[in-house]
Amino acid sequence: MAREMSDTTIAVDQRVEKIAWDLTSRPAEYDPDVHSEAVRMETRELSVKYGKVVGVEGISVPIYSNTVTALIGPSGCGKTTFLRALNRMHDLMPSAAVTGEVLLDGENIYGRRVDPVMIRRKIGMVFQKPTPFPTMSVYENVVAGLRLVGIRNRAALDEVAEQSLRQAALWEEVKDRLKAPASALSGGQQQRLSIARALAVEPEVLLMDEPTSSLDPKATARIEQLISELKSAVTIVIVTHNMQQAARVSDFTAFFFLGSLIEFGTTNKIFTSPEEQRTEDYITGRFG
Amino acid sequence: MTVRARYIRDGVMRSLLIASTLFIVVPLLIIISYVLINGIGALNWNFFTVELGSPARAMQGRPTGLAHSIVGTVIIDLMALAFAAPVGIAAGIMLSEYPDNPINPPLRVLSSTLNGMPAILMGLLAFALVVRPFGGFSAVSGSVALAFVMFPIIARSVESVLRTTPWSLREVGLALGLPRWRVIISTVLPAAKTGILTGVLIAFARAAGEAAPLLFTSFGQNYMNLDPGRAMDTLPQRLYSLAISPYREWHAMGWAAAIVLLVFVMTCFFVARLVAGRFGTRADG
What stretches of A42-168 show up as alpha helix (H) in DSSP? Predict the structure, then answer.
Protein backbone atom coordinates (compact mmCIF):
# COMPACT_ATOMS: atom_id res chain seq x y z
CA MET A 1 0.00 0.00 0.00
CA ALA A 2 2.75 2.42 0.99
CA ARG A 3 4.66 1.42 -2.07
CA GLU A 4 1.69 2.05 -4.25
CA MET A 5 1.12 5.47 -2.77
CA SER A 6 4.68 6.62 -3.33
CA ASP A 7 4.46 5.41 -6.92
CA THR A 8 1.37 7.51 -7.37
CA THR A 9 3.15 10.44 -5.79
CA ILE A 10 6.04 10.14 -8.19
CA ALA A 11 3.66 9.84 -11.09
CA VAL A 12 1.85 12.95 -9.92
CA ASP A 13 5.13 14.79 -9.55
CA GLN A 14 6.13 13.98 -13.08
CA ARG A 15 2.80 15.15 -14.28
CA VAL A 16 2.98 18.38 -12.34
CA GLU A 17 6.46 19.05 -13.65
CA LYS A 18 5.23 18.49 -17.13
CA ILE A 19 2.27 20.80 -16.61
CA ALA A 20 4.46 23.42 -15.01
CA TRP A 21 6.67 23.21 -18.05
CA ASP A 22 3.62 23.47 -20.29
CA LEU A 23 2.56 26.57 -18.46
CA THR A 24 5.90 28.30 -18.73
CA SER A 25 5.98 27.52 -22.43
CA ARG A 26 2.56 29.18 -22.76
CA PRO A 27 0.78 27.20 -25.44
CA ALA A 28 -1.51 29.17 -27.69
CA GLU A 29 -4.76 28.11 -25.98
CA TYR A 30 -3.76 29.91 -22.76
CA ASP A 31 -5.01 33.39 -22.13
CA PRO A 32 -1.94 35.60 -22.37
CA ASP A 33 -3.34 38.02 -19.77
CA VAL A 34 -3.52 35.24 -17.26
CA HIS A 35 0.13 34.48 -17.64
CA SER A 36 1.47 37.95 -17.60
CA GLU A 37 1.79 37.66 -13.82
CA ALA A 38 4.30 35.64 -11.89
CA VAL A 39 3.83 32.69 -9.58
CA ARG A 40 2.41 34.08 -6.34
CA MET A 41 2.31 30.87 -4.34
CA GLU A 42 3.68 27.44 -4.85
CA THR A 43 3.48 24.21 -2.88
CA ARG A 44 6.27 21.67 -2.92
CA GLU A 45 5.64 18.13 -1.80
CA LEU A 46 3.00 19.38 0.58
CA SER A 47 1.49 16.68 2.81
CA VAL A 48 -0.94 16.96 5.69
CA LYS A 49 -1.52 14.06 8.04
CA TYR A 50 -3.97 13.79 10.90
CA GLY A 51 -2.22 11.33 13.15
CA LYS A 52 -1.85 8.36 10.82
CA VAL A 53 -4.59 9.43 8.46
CA VAL A 54 -3.33 11.08 5.31
CA GLY A 55 -5.23 14.23 4.36
CA VAL A 56 -3.21 15.11 1.29
CA GLU A 57 0.12 13.82 0.14
CA GLY A 58 2.89 15.16 -2.04
CA ILE A 59 1.07 18.10 -3.60
CA SER A 60 3.21 20.35 -5.78
CA VAL A 61 1.30 23.03 -7.58
CA PRO A 62 1.84 26.66 -8.65
CA ILE A 63 -0.69 29.41 -7.99
CA TYR A 64 -0.43 32.31 -10.40
CA SER A 65 -0.82 35.91 -9.45
CA ASN A 66 -4.19 37.55 -10.09
CA THR A 67 -5.84 34.38 -11.29
CA VAL A 68 -8.52 32.14 -9.89
CA THR A 69 -7.51 28.57 -9.16
CA ALA A 70 -10.31 26.11 -8.50
CA LEU A 71 -9.76 22.98 -6.43
CA ILE A 72 -12.22 20.27 -7.38
CA GLY A 73 -12.73 16.64 -6.49
CA PRO A 74 -15.15 14.36 -4.66
CA SER A 75 -15.86 14.78 -0.93
CA GLY A 76 -12.97 13.73 1.25
CA CYS A 77 -10.41 14.09 -1.54
CA GLY A 78 -8.36 16.56 0.47
CA LYS A 79 -9.08 19.81 -1.32
CA THR A 80 -10.17 21.68 1.80
CA THR A 81 -7.26 20.17 3.75
CA PHE A 82 -4.95 21.47 1.05
CA LEU A 83 -6.57 24.92 1.08
CA ARG A 84 -6.25 25.24 4.83
CA ALA A 85 -2.58 24.35 4.63
CA LEU A 86 -2.07 27.43 2.46
CA ASN A 87 -2.50 29.84 5.37
CA ARG A 88 -1.49 27.59 8.24
CA MET A 89 -4.99 27.01 9.57
CA HIS A 90 -3.86 23.52 10.56
CA ASP A 91 -1.70 25.11 13.26
CA LEU A 92 -4.80 25.10 15.45
CA MET A 93 -5.09 21.35 15.30
CA PRO A 94 -2.38 19.69 17.30
CA SER A 95 -3.02 16.37 15.57
CA ALA A 96 -2.38 17.79 12.11
CA ALA A 97 1.18 17.50 10.81
CA VAL A 98 2.19 19.47 7.75
CA THR A 99 5.31 18.58 5.77
CA GLY A 100 6.74 20.02 2.58
CA GLU A 101 6.82 23.66 1.63
CA VAL A 102 4.33 26.36 0.81
CA LEU A 103 6.00 29.33 -0.81
CA LEU A 104 4.48 32.79 -0.82
CA ASP A 105 6.49 35.10 -3.06
CA GLY A 106 9.33 32.63 -2.80
CA GLU A 107 9.36 32.39 0.98
CA ASN A 108 8.31 29.21 2.81
CA ILE A 109 5.39 30.10 5.10
CA TYR A 110 6.22 27.08 7.24
CA GLY A 111 9.76 28.39 7.76
CA ARG A 112 11.08 28.34 11.28
CA ARG A 113 11.08 32.09 11.84
CA VAL A 114 7.80 32.84 10.14
CA ASP A 115 4.94 34.18 12.26
CA PRO A 116 1.66 32.53 11.18
CA VAL A 117 -0.21 35.70 12.16
CA MET A 118 1.71 37.71 9.56
CA ILE A 119 1.12 35.00 6.97
CA ARG A 120 -2.61 35.10 7.56
CA ARG A 121 -2.63 38.87 7.07
CA LYS A 122 -1.30 38.24 3.57
CA ILE A 123 -3.38 35.15 2.87
CA GLY A 124 -6.99 35.70 3.85
CA MET A 125 -9.76 33.13 3.97
CA VAL A 126 -13.50 32.99 3.41
CA PHE A 127 -15.30 30.02 4.86
CA GLN A 128 -18.11 27.76 3.79
CA LYS A 129 -20.67 29.20 6.19
CA PRO A 130 -21.09 32.96 6.41
CA THR A 131 -19.62 33.79 9.80
CA PRO A 132 -20.05 37.40 10.82
CA PHE A 133 -18.89 38.15 14.35
CA PRO A 134 -22.27 37.89 16.07
CA THR A 135 -21.73 40.66 18.61
CA MET A 136 -20.51 43.23 16.09
CA SER A 137 -22.27 45.58 13.68
CA VAL A 138 -21.82 45.47 9.92
CA TYR A 139 -19.22 48.23 10.12
CA GLU A 140 -17.35 46.68 13.04
CA ASN A 141 -17.22 43.38 11.19
CA VAL A 142 -15.64 44.90 8.10
CA VAL A 143 -12.94 46.78 9.99
CA ALA A 144 -12.38 44.08 12.64
CA GLY A 145 -9.12 42.90 11.09
CA LEU A 146 -7.71 46.43 11.26
CA ARG A 147 -9.26 47.78 14.42
CA LEU A 148 -8.35 44.79 16.53
CA VAL A 149 -4.69 45.18 15.72
CA GLY A 150 -4.79 48.75 16.98
CA ILE A 151 -5.69 50.94 14.02
CA ARG A 152 -7.96 53.61 15.50
CA ASN A 153 -7.98 56.34 12.88
CA ARG A 154 -11.69 56.73 12.27
CA ALA A 155 -11.39 58.38 8.87
CA ALA A 156 -9.03 55.69 7.61
CA LEU A 157 -11.28 52.92 8.92
CA ASP A 158 -14.35 54.54 7.32
CA GLU A 159 -12.57 54.66 4.02
CA VAL A 160 -11.45 51.04 4.21
CA ALA A 161 -14.96 49.97 5.22
CA GLU A 162 -16.57 51.67 2.24
CA GLN A 163 -13.92 50.48 -0.18
CA SER A 164 -14.11 46.88 1.03
CA LEU A 165 -17.90 46.82 1.01
CA ARG A 166 -17.87 48.23 -2.53
CA GLN A 167 -15.36 45.58 -3.59
CA ALA A 168 -17.64 42.94 -2.12
CA ALA A 169 -20.64 44.48 -3.93
CA LEU A 170 -22.43 45.05 -0.66
CA TRP A 171 -22.05 48.80 -0.15
CA GLU A 172 -25.30 49.88 -1.81
CA GLU A 173 -27.29 47.42 0.27
CA VAL A 174 -25.84 48.24 3.68
CA LYS A 175 -24.59 51.83 3.50
CA ASP A 176 -27.62 53.03 5.47
CA ARG A 177 -27.36 50.40 8.15
CA LEU A 178 -23.69 50.07 8.92
CA LYS A 179 -24.54 50.13 12.61
CA ALA A 180 -27.07 47.30 12.38
CA PRO A 181 -26.00 43.96 13.82
CA ALA A 182 -24.34 41.83 11.16
CA SER A 183 -26.64 38.95 12.05
CA ALA A 184 -29.58 40.97 10.67
CA LEU A 185 -28.28 40.59 7.10
CA SER A 186 -29.42 37.81 4.78
CA GLY A 187 -27.22 34.75 4.23
CA GLY A 188 -25.92 36.01 0.89
CA GLN A 189 -25.21 39.44 2.35
CA GLN A 190 -23.45 37.88 5.34
CA GLN A 191 -21.19 35.95 2.98
CA ARG A 192 -20.36 39.09 1.03
CA LEU A 193 -19.73 40.79 4.38
CA SER A 194 -17.30 37.97 5.22
CA ILE A 195 -15.57 38.63 1.90
CA ALA A 196 -15.46 42.38 2.56
CA ARG A 197 -13.99 41.71 5.99
CA ALA A 198 -11.30 39.48 4.48
CA LEU A 199 -10.53 42.10 1.82
CA ALA A 200 -10.26 44.94 4.34
CA VAL A 201 -6.85 43.77 5.52
CA GLU A 202 -5.69 43.84 1.88
CA PRO A 203 -4.50 40.26 1.52
CA GLU A 204 -2.40 39.20 -1.45
CA VAL A 205 -4.18 35.89 -1.68
CA LEU A 206 -7.77 35.01 -0.83
CA LEU A 207 -8.65 31.40 -0.04
CA MET A 208 -12.31 30.50 -0.43
CA ASP A 209 -13.69 27.27 0.96
CA GLU A 210 -16.92 26.53 -0.90
CA PRO A 211 -18.07 30.12 -0.38
CA THR A 212 -21.42 29.60 -2.08
CA SER A 213 -22.42 26.18 -0.80
CA SER A 214 -24.92 27.61 1.69
CA LEU A 215 -26.35 30.23 -0.66
CA ASP A 216 -29.23 30.30 -3.12
CA PRO A 217 -28.58 30.55 -6.88
CA LYS A 218 -29.04 34.32 -6.98
CA ALA A 219 -26.60 34.99 -4.16
CA THR A 220 -24.24 32.44 -5.73
CA ALA A 221 -24.29 34.28 -9.05
CA ARG A 222 -23.51 37.48 -7.18
CA ILE A 223 -20.49 35.97 -5.45
CA GLU A 224 -19.23 34.39 -8.66
CA GLN A 225 -19.38 37.72 -10.43
CA LEU A 226 -17.54 39.20 -7.49
CA ILE A 227 -14.78 36.61 -7.74
CA SER A 228 -14.15 37.56 -11.37
CA GLU A 229 -13.99 41.23 -10.41
CA LEU A 230 -11.67 40.68 -7.47
CA LYS A 231 -9.09 38.95 -9.61
CA SER A 232 -7.47 42.23 -10.50
CA ALA A 233 -6.75 42.91 -6.84
CA VAL A 234 -6.04 39.50 -5.32
CA THR A 235 -5.05 35.98 -6.21
CA ILE A 236 -7.89 33.59 -5.47
CA VAL A 237 -7.93 29.90 -4.65
CA ILE A 238 -11.42 28.45 -4.40
CA VAL A 239 -12.65 25.05 -3.32
CA THR A 240 -15.87 24.11 -5.00
CA HIS A 241 -18.14 21.10 -5.32
CA ASN A 242 -19.87 22.70 -8.21
CA MET A 243 -18.23 21.80 -11.49
CA GLN A 244 -20.06 24.51 -13.39
CA GLN A 245 -18.84 27.03 -10.87
CA ALA A 246 -15.24 25.93 -11.34
CA ALA A 247 -15.67 26.22 -15.10
CA ARG A 248 -17.30 29.65 -14.80
CA VAL A 249 -14.97 31.42 -12.41
CA SER A 250 -11.54 29.84 -12.58
CA ASP A 251 -8.50 30.18 -14.81
CA PHE A 252 -6.79 27.10 -13.45
CA THR A 253 -8.19 23.90 -12.03
CA ALA A 254 -6.62 21.30 -9.81
CA PHE A 255 -8.37 17.95 -9.56
CA PHE A 256 -7.85 16.08 -6.30
CA PHE A 257 -8.67 12.46 -5.66
CA LEU A 258 -7.98 10.37 -2.55
CA GLY A 259 -5.54 12.90 -1.14
CA SER A 260 -3.50 13.25 -4.30
CA LEU A 261 -3.37 15.84 -7.00
CA ILE A 262 -4.43 14.01 -10.13
CA GLU A 263 -4.25 16.81 -12.62
CA PHE A 264 -3.54 20.51 -12.74
CA GLY A 265 -3.89 22.80 -15.73
CA THR A 266 -5.84 25.62 -17.20
CA THR A 267 -9.53 25.28 -16.58
CA ASN A 268 -10.09 25.23 -20.29
CA LYS A 269 -7.83 22.25 -20.71
CA ILE A 270 -9.05 20.32 -17.67
CA PHE A 271 -12.64 20.66 -18.78
CA THR A 272 -12.16 20.05 -22.48
CA SER A 273 -9.24 17.68 -22.87
CA PRO A 274 -8.02 16.30 -19.55
CA GLU A 275 -5.04 14.01 -19.73
CA GLU A 276 -6.18 11.73 -16.96
CA GLN A 277 -9.04 9.29 -17.33
CA ARG A 278 -10.05 9.89 -13.70
CA THR A 279 -10.33 13.63 -14.28
CA GLU A 280 -12.53 13.06 -17.27
CA ASP A 281 -14.66 10.55 -15.40
CA TYR A 282 -15.20 12.98 -12.54
CA ILE A 283 -15.91 15.98 -14.71
CA THR A 284 -18.35 14.10 -16.89
CA GLY A 285 -20.13 12.90 -13.76
CA ARG A 286 -19.18 9.25 -13.91
CA PHE A 287 -18.30 9.28 -10.19
CA GLY A 288 -18.10 11.69 -7.29
CA MET B 1 -46.11 -2.79 17.95
CA THR B 2 -49.57 -1.45 17.44
CA VAL B 3 -50.28 2.25 17.45
CA ARG B 4 -52.33 1.78 20.60
CA ALA B 5 -49.38 0.17 22.40
CA ARG B 6 -47.22 3.09 21.39
CA TYR B 7 -49.71 5.54 22.84
CA ILE B 8 -49.76 3.59 26.10
CA ARG B 9 -45.97 3.55 26.23
CA ASP B 10 -45.82 7.26 25.58
CA GLY B 11 -48.33 7.83 28.38
CA VAL B 12 -46.37 5.68 30.83
CA MET B 13 -43.10 7.45 30.05
CA ARG B 14 -44.70 10.84 30.43
CA SER B 15 -46.21 9.92 33.79
CA LEU B 16 -42.82 8.71 34.99
CA LEU B 17 -41.22 11.98 33.98
CA ILE B 18 -43.93 14.01 35.70
CA ALA B 19 -43.61 11.84 38.82
CA SER B 20 -39.86 12.34 39.04
CA THR B 21 -40.24 16.09 38.56
CA LEU B 22 -42.78 16.21 41.40
CA PHE B 23 -40.43 14.13 43.51
CA ILE B 24 -37.97 17.04 43.38
CA VAL B 25 -40.35 19.99 43.32
CA VAL B 26 -42.70 18.99 46.14
CA PRO B 27 -40.04 18.70 48.88
CA LEU B 28 -38.59 22.00 47.68
CA LEU B 29 -41.98 23.68 48.02
CA ILE B 30 -42.42 22.11 51.46
CA ILE B 31 -39.06 23.46 52.60
CA ILE B 32 -39.76 26.93 51.25
CA SER B 33 -43.21 27.15 52.81
CA TYR B 34 -41.97 25.72 56.12
CA VAL B 35 -39.25 28.36 56.26
CA LEU B 36 -41.71 31.10 55.35
CA ILE B 37 -44.26 30.03 57.97
CA ASN B 38 -41.69 29.85 60.74
CA GLY B 39 -39.70 32.94 59.88
CA ILE B 40 -42.12 35.50 58.58
CA GLY B 41 -43.13 36.56 62.11
CA ALA B 42 -39.59 37.63 63.03
CA LEU B 43 -39.12 39.74 59.90
CA ASN B 44 -39.53 43.41 60.70
CA TRP B 45 -37.81 46.74 60.13
CA ASN B 46 -35.38 46.16 62.99
CA PHE B 47 -34.30 42.87 61.49
CA PHE B 48 -32.75 44.73 58.56
CA THR B 49 -31.45 47.82 60.41
CA VAL B 50 -30.14 46.74 63.82
CA GLU B 51 -27.20 44.56 64.78
CA LEU B 52 -27.66 41.42 66.87
CA GLY B 53 -25.86 42.26 70.12
CA SER B 54 -26.06 39.97 73.13
CA PRO B 55 -28.83 37.39 73.67
CA ALA B 56 -30.20 39.62 76.44
CA ARG B 57 -31.43 42.13 73.83
CA ALA B 58 -33.70 39.57 72.23
CA MET B 59 -34.94 38.15 75.52
CA GLN B 60 -35.76 41.56 76.94
CA GLY B 61 -37.55 42.56 73.76
CA ARG B 62 -35.05 45.34 72.93
CA PRO B 63 -34.40 46.09 69.22
CA THR B 64 -32.22 43.46 67.64
CA GLY B 65 -31.63 42.29 64.08
CA LEU B 66 -29.22 40.89 61.55
CA ALA B 67 -28.16 44.07 59.72
CA HIS B 68 -24.54 43.22 60.45
CA SER B 69 -24.92 39.71 58.96
CA ILE B 70 -26.59 41.01 55.82
CA VAL B 71 -23.91 43.68 55.31
CA GLY B 72 -21.20 41.11 56.08
CA THR B 73 -22.63 38.63 53.61
CA VAL B 74 -22.65 41.22 50.85
CA ILE B 75 -19.07 42.34 51.62
CA ILE B 76 -17.59 38.85 51.94
CA ASP B 77 -19.45 37.45 48.91
CA LEU B 78 -18.50 40.36 46.68
CA MET B 79 -14.85 40.16 47.74
CA ALA B 80 -14.92 36.42 47.04
CA LEU B 81 -16.38 37.12 43.63
CA ALA B 82 -13.66 39.67 42.94
CA PHE B 83 -11.05 37.01 43.76
CA ALA B 84 -12.67 34.07 42.01
CA ALA B 85 -14.22 35.56 38.86
CA PRO B 86 -11.04 36.77 37.10
CA VAL B 87 -9.06 33.68 38.06
CA GLY B 88 -11.93 31.31 37.26
CA ILE B 89 -12.66 32.92 33.91
CA ALA B 90 -8.95 32.89 33.04
CA ALA B 91 -8.75 29.20 33.97
CA GLY B 92 -11.84 28.44 31.87
CA ILE B 93 -10.26 30.23 28.89
CA MET B 94 -7.02 28.31 29.40
CA LEU B 95 -8.81 24.96 29.50
CA SER B 96 -10.97 25.64 26.49
CA GLU B 97 -8.75 27.71 24.21
CA TYR B 98 -5.28 26.36 24.88
CA PRO B 99 -5.96 22.64 25.35
CA ASP B 100 -2.34 21.67 24.71
CA ASN B 101 -0.80 23.98 27.25
CA PRO B 102 1.28 22.05 29.78
CA ILE B 103 -0.34 23.84 32.74
CA ASN B 104 -3.75 22.45 31.82
CA PRO B 105 -3.47 18.92 33.23
CA PRO B 106 -2.56 20.19 36.73
CA LEU B 107 -5.14 22.97 36.39
CA ARG B 108 -7.82 20.43 35.55
CA VAL B 109 -6.86 18.25 38.51
CA LEU B 110 -6.89 21.27 40.83
CA SER B 111 -10.25 22.39 39.51
CA SER B 112 -11.90 18.98 39.89
CA THR B 113 -10.35 18.46 43.31
CA LEU B 114 -11.67 21.79 44.54
CA ASN B 115 -15.02 20.98 42.98
CA GLY B 116 -15.31 17.71 44.85
CA MET B 117 -13.80 18.94 48.11
CA PRO B 118 -16.13 19.29 51.12
CA ALA B 119 -16.79 22.98 51.75
CA ILE B 120 -15.41 22.88 55.25
CA LEU B 121 -12.00 21.97 53.85
CA MET B 122 -12.06 25.20 51.85
CA GLY B 123 -12.27 26.89 55.24
CA LEU B 124 -9.26 24.92 56.47
CA LEU B 125 -7.37 25.82 53.31
CA ALA B 126 -8.08 29.53 53.79
CA PHE B 127 -7.27 29.15 57.48
CA ALA B 128 -3.83 27.83 56.61
CA LEU B 129 -3.26 30.32 53.80
CA VAL B 130 -4.64 33.52 55.32
CA VAL B 131 -5.74 33.27 58.95
CA ARG B 132 -2.52 31.74 60.28
CA PRO B 133 -0.06 33.98 58.43
CA PHE B 134 -2.02 37.14 59.29
CA GLY B 135 -2.68 36.09 62.85
CA GLY B 136 -6.44 36.32 63.13
CA PHE B 137 -9.92 35.72 61.76
CA SER B 138 -10.88 38.14 59.04
CA ALA B 139 -13.50 38.83 56.41
CA VAL B 140 -10.75 38.54 53.78
CA SER B 141 -9.94 34.99 54.80
CA GLY B 142 -13.65 34.13 54.56
CA SER B 143 -13.70 35.58 51.05
CA VAL B 144 -10.69 33.49 50.10
CA ALA B 145 -12.47 30.36 51.37
CA LEU B 146 -15.61 31.20 49.37
CA ALA B 147 -13.47 32.02 46.35
CA PHE B 148 -12.22 28.42 46.52
CA VAL B 149 -15.86 27.32 46.36
CA MET B 150 -16.60 29.58 43.39
CA PHE B 151 -13.43 28.98 41.39
CA PRO B 152 -14.06 25.45 40.04
CA ILE B 153 -17.69 26.23 39.24
CA ILE B 154 -16.73 29.33 37.26
CA ALA B 155 -13.81 27.62 35.53
CA ARG B 156 -15.94 24.68 34.44
CA SER B 157 -18.90 26.70 33.25
CA VAL B 158 -16.66 29.12 31.33
CA GLU B 159 -14.85 26.19 29.74
CA SER B 160 -18.07 24.53 28.64
CA VAL B 161 -19.61 27.78 27.42
CA LEU B 162 -16.52 28.58 25.35
CA ARG B 163 -16.58 25.10 23.90
CA THR B 164 -20.10 25.65 22.65
CA THR B 165 -19.22 28.86 20.80
CA PRO B 166 -18.74 28.01 17.14
CA TRP B 167 -15.19 27.03 16.28
CA SER B 168 -15.58 28.98 13.05
CA LEU B 169 -15.48 32.26 15.01
CA ARG B 170 -11.90 31.57 16.00
CA GLU B 171 -10.92 30.52 12.49
CA VAL B 172 -12.41 33.66 11.00
CA GLY B 173 -10.51 35.81 13.48
CA LEU B 174 -7.23 34.02 12.87
CA ALA B 175 -7.73 34.15 9.11
CA LEU B 176 -7.92 37.95 9.44
CA GLY B 177 -4.39 37.88 10.79
CA LEU B 178 -5.36 38.50 14.40
CA PRO B 179 -3.23 37.04 17.16
CA ARG B 180 -4.87 34.29 19.14
CA TRP B 181 -5.37 36.21 22.39
CA ARG B 182 -7.02 39.01 20.44
CA VAL B 183 -9.39 36.56 18.77
CA ILE B 184 -10.39 35.20 22.17
CA ILE B 185 -10.92 38.57 23.81
CA SER B 186 -12.66 40.34 20.96
CA THR B 187 -14.68 37.64 19.28
CA VAL B 188 -15.02 34.50 21.40
CA LEU B 189 -15.64 36.09 24.81
CA PRO B 190 -18.24 38.61 23.57
CA ALA B 191 -20.13 35.79 21.86
CA ALA B 192 -20.06 33.79 25.11
CA LYS B 193 -20.61 36.63 27.57
CA THR B 194 -24.13 35.70 28.64
CA GLY B 195 -23.09 32.12 29.31
CA ILE B 196 -20.10 33.31 31.30
CA LEU B 197 -22.26 35.71 33.31
CA THR B 198 -24.72 32.90 34.05
CA GLY B 199 -21.93 30.64 35.27
CA VAL B 200 -20.52 33.37 37.50
CA LEU B 201 -23.94 34.09 39.00
CA ILE B 202 -24.57 30.42 39.72
CA ALA B 203 -21.17 30.11 41.40
CA PHE B 204 -21.94 33.23 43.40
CA ALA B 205 -25.28 31.87 44.57
CA ARG B 206 -23.71 28.53 45.46
CA ALA B 207 -21.02 30.18 47.58
CA ALA B 208 -23.44 32.67 49.14
CA GLY B 209 -25.28 29.81 50.81
CA GLU B 210 -22.17 28.21 52.33
CA ALA B 211 -21.59 28.37 56.07
CA ALA B 212 -18.90 25.76 56.59
CA PRO B 213 -16.00 27.55 54.85
CA LEU B 214 -16.58 30.59 57.06
CA LEU B 215 -16.50 28.87 60.46
CA PHE B 216 -12.80 29.36 61.03
CA THR B 217 -12.10 32.15 58.61
CA SER B 218 -14.50 35.09 58.89
CA PHE B 219 -15.62 33.48 62.17
CA GLY B 220 -18.69 35.62 62.74
CA GLN B 221 -19.64 38.14 65.36
CA ASN B 222 -22.65 39.86 66.93
CA TYR B 223 -21.85 43.45 66.02
CA MET B 224 -21.54 45.53 62.92
CA ASN B 225 -18.07 45.47 61.41
CA LEU B 226 -16.99 46.93 58.07
CA ASP B 227 -13.27 46.26 58.49
CA PRO B 228 -12.31 43.35 56.20
CA GLY B 229 -9.27 42.69 58.39
CA ARG B 230 -11.44 41.62 61.32
CA ALA B 231 -14.00 38.92 61.99
CA MET B 232 -17.29 39.52 60.17
CA ASP B 233 -20.73 37.95 60.28
CA THR B 234 -22.58 36.26 57.43
CA LEU B 235 -26.14 35.01 57.04
CA PRO B 236 -25.50 31.29 56.49
CA GLN B 237 -23.18 31.07 59.44
CA ARG B 238 -25.43 33.25 61.63
CA LEU B 239 -28.35 31.02 60.74
CA TYR B 240 -26.39 28.06 62.04
CA SER B 241 -25.35 29.86 65.25
CA LEU B 242 -28.89 31.05 65.93
CA ALA B 243 -30.32 27.60 65.33
CA ILE B 244 -28.00 25.89 67.81
CA SER B 245 -28.36 28.65 70.40
CA PRO B 246 -30.46 27.95 73.50
CA TYR B 247 -32.73 31.01 73.04
CA ARG B 248 -36.23 30.72 71.67
CA GLU B 249 -36.13 34.32 70.32
CA TRP B 250 -32.96 33.56 68.39
CA HIS B 251 -34.53 30.46 66.85
CA ALA B 252 -37.25 32.68 65.37
CA MET B 253 -34.58 35.04 64.03
CA GLY B 254 -32.82 32.04 62.51
CA TRP B 255 -35.93 31.20 60.49
CA ALA B 256 -36.12 34.81 59.36
CA ALA B 257 -32.45 34.69 58.36
CA ALA B 258 -33.27 31.59 56.33
CA ILE B 259 -35.95 33.54 54.43
CA VAL B 260 -33.52 36.36 53.62
CA LEU B 261 -30.84 33.91 52.52
CA LEU B 262 -33.32 31.95 50.42
CA VAL B 263 -34.54 35.11 48.69
CA PHE B 264 -30.95 36.22 48.12
CA VAL B 265 -29.83 32.93 46.59
CA MET B 266 -33.01 32.44 44.58
CA THR B 267 -32.71 35.95 43.19
CA CYS B 268 -29.22 35.10 41.95
CA PHE B 269 -30.46 31.93 40.26
CA PHE B 270 -33.47 33.74 38.86
CA VAL B 271 -31.32 36.52 37.39
CA ALA B 272 -28.97 33.87 35.98
CA ARG B 273 -31.91 32.12 34.31
CA LEU B 274 -33.23 35.41 33.01
CA VAL B 275 -29.86 36.40 31.57
CA ALA B 276 -29.41 33.00 29.97
CA GLY B 277 -32.94 32.94 28.61
CA ARG B 278 -33.06 36.45 27.22
CA PHE B 279 -29.65 36.74 25.63
CA GLY B 280 -28.50 33.14 25.53
CA THR B 281 -29.90 32.45 22.10
CA ARG B 282 -27.96 35.32 20.56
CA ALA B 283 -24.60 33.65 20.88
CA ASP B 284 -25.04 31.62 17.71
CA GLY B 285 -27.65 33.80 15.99
Answer: 79-85, 116-122, 138-147, 154-167
How far does the CA of residue B176 sit from the closest CA of chain A (Å)?
A: 5
CA distance A94 to A50: 9
Let me know: does B184 contact B89? Beta carbons within 8 Å.
no
B170, B174, B176: residue with CB nearest A197: B176
- How far is B233 from B221, CA to CA, in rounded Å? 5
Q: What is the CA radius of gyration of chain A?
A: 19
Which residue in B100, B175, B186 is closest to A89 by CB distance?
B175
Tell me the residue ranges of DSSP E strands in chain A: 39-50, 53-64, 68-72, 96-104, 107-108, 123-126, 205-209, 235-239, 252-257, 260-266
The distance of B201 to chain A (nearest Cα, Å) reads 22
Pairing relationship of beta strands A107-108 and A96-104 according to DSSP bridges:
antiparallel
* Terminal alpha carbon distance of chain A: 23
Check CB contact of A198 with chain B, cutoff 8 Å. Answer: yes
| Degrees to nearest 5, angle at CA B171 with B182 and B199 | 65
Q: Using DSSP, state whether B113 is helix, strand or coil.
A: helix
Using one digit for the tens of pLDDT, what is the confidence trace for A142-181?
A: 999 998 888 889 999 999 999 999 988 899 999 999 999 9
Put simply, whether the predicted model's pTM sits higher than 0.90 gets the answer: no
Q: Which residue of A has its CA nearest to B191?
A: A135
Min Cα separation B214/chain A (Å): 40
The CATH fold assigned to B67-284 is MetI-like fold (1.10.3720)
Q: Are strands A39-50 and A53-64 parallel, antiparallel or unpaired?
A: antiparallel
- Give A126's strand partners: A208
Comparing alpha-carbon positions, the chain B residue that sits nearest to A201 is B176
Contact A124 B100 (CB under 8 A): no
List of chain A residues with pLDDT < 50: 1-5, 8, 12, 15-16, 18-30, 32, 34
Helices (H), A32-131: 32-35, 79-85, 116-122
Domain boundaries in chain B?
3-42, 67-284
* CB count in 10 Å sphere of residue B17: 10
* Interface membership of A89 toward B (CB under 8 Å): yes
Q: What is the ipTM of this complex?
A: 0.80
Return d(Cα B264, Cα B266) in angstroms, integer: 6
The rounded distance, in Å, linking the Cα atoms of A108 and A90 is 16
